[in-house]
């Protein structure tokens, strides 16, 4: 961290680095959950949802890159061992054992809601104290809110499709 950055940062940098490493672990798990879930997914609207989940996966990977860069800028070391990801993560990875599209979406929705809490926490911690991290956290938070909205929309669409199919059968 540069001298001026240290001078204007009014927070515990070690605590912040820990928070960012926890978020980094969660981003890697979210990336894989989206990526593998998209490939394993079966059911209605799969062909429409799969490419969008892969976009979400790439956005999670981009978040990981931002976090690594910021951790290094703050003088910290990013988590180096993937074995630590599950240990550090508050947002849990859920194996796509049931590949049904609604199950995959529900797993991703839980992850997004957890990520929203994480980035709100980082934004609140850095607001007015570390402008660079605050801006990064709010930008990522915006992406996570958009992901949550996308998933909720897909779930509504699937339920409407199922309702339409029931009406046709009657």
Structure notes:
With 170 residues, the chain is an all-alpha fold. Helices cover 78% and strands 0% of the residues. The model has no long low-confidence stretch (mean pLDDT 94). 31% of the residues are buried. The chain contains 6 helices and no strands. The termini are far apart.
Mean model confidence by pLDDT: 94
Which runs of at least 5 residues are low in confidence (pLDDT < 50)?
Answer: none
Helix content: over 70%
Looking at how many chains there are and whether they match, the oligomeric state comes to: single chain
Please tally the helical runs, counting DSSP H or I stretches of 4 or more residues: 6
Strand content: under 5%
N to C succession of SSEs: HHHHHH
Give me the count of strands.
0
Q: Which structural class fits the helix and strand makeup? A: mainly alpha
Gross morphology is elongated
Radius of gyration equals 18 Å
Terminal-residue CA separation: 67 Å
**Main beta-sheet annotation:** none
């Amino acid at each position: 961290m540069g001298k001026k950055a240290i001078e204007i940062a009014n927070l515990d940098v070690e605590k912040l680095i820990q928070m960012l490493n926890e978020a980094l672990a969660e981003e890697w798990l979210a990336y894989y959950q989206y990526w593998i879930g998209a490939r394993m997914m079966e059911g209605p609207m799969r062909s429409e949802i799969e490419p969008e989940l892969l976009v979400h996966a790439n956005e999670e990977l981009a978040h990981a890159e931002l976090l690594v860069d910021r951790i290094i800028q703050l003088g910290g070391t990013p988590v180096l061992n993937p074995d630590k990801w599950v240990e550090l993560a508050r947002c849990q990875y859920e194996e796509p054992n049931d590949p049904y599209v609604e199950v995959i979406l529900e797993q991703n929705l839980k992850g997004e809601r957890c990520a929203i809490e994480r980035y709100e926490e980082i934004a609140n911690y850095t607001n007015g104290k570390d402008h660079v991290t605050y801006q990064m956290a709010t930008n990522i938070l915006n992406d996570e809110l958009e992901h949550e909205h996308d998933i909720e929309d897909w779930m509504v669409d699937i339920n409407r499709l199922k309702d339409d199919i029931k009406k046709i059968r009657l």
